């Protein structure tokens, strides 16, 4: 049994859900901000950083322009990371919601890593 717990991060984004979804769900989009190289075959994505050995994640669930959920193949089956696209009711603003798992003492570091990645995404989106 994993000692990791789920945590959630939210980021307001200035772009349409359709454009954001492309950056979260396709190899070309993910390669723009998440990893140096991204390939996909049969719903298994290979992510490479700095020319290293690829980490593989299976796309386990998705809904067009709403969310995409991946599971790292080397981690516990119940763990995943998810990108969800929400709209606020009052302002109709797009919100990127990231869910991930980490050990309690690592949540702050993991959150900072996501922060760095999301900044790159926002740069690509022109935010």
Automatic annotation (TrEMBL):
Annotated ranges, domain START-like: 1-126
Pfam families registered for this protein in UniProt: START_2 (PF19569)
Domain of life: Bacteria
Protein name, UniProt field: START-like domain-containing protein
Organism: Filimonas lacunae
Organism placement in taxonomy: Bacteria, Pseudomonadati, Bacteroidota, Chitinophagia, Chitinophagales
């Amino acid at each position: 049994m994993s000692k990791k717990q789920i945590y959630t991060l939210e980021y307001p984004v200035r772009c349409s859900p359709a454009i954001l979804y492309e950056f979260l769900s396709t190899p070309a989009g993910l390669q723009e901000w998440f990893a140096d190289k991204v390939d996909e075959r049969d719903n298994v994505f290979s992510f490479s950083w700095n020319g290293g050995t690829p980490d593989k994640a299976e796309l386990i669930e998705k809904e067009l322009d709403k969310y995409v959920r991946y599971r790292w193949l080397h981690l516990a089956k119940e763990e995943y990371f998810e990108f969800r696209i929400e709209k606020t009711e009052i302002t109709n603003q797009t919100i990127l919601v990231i869910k991930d798992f980490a050990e309690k003492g690592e949540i702050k570091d993991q959150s900072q890593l996501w922060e760095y990645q999301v900044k790159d995404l926002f740069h690509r989106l022109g935010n």
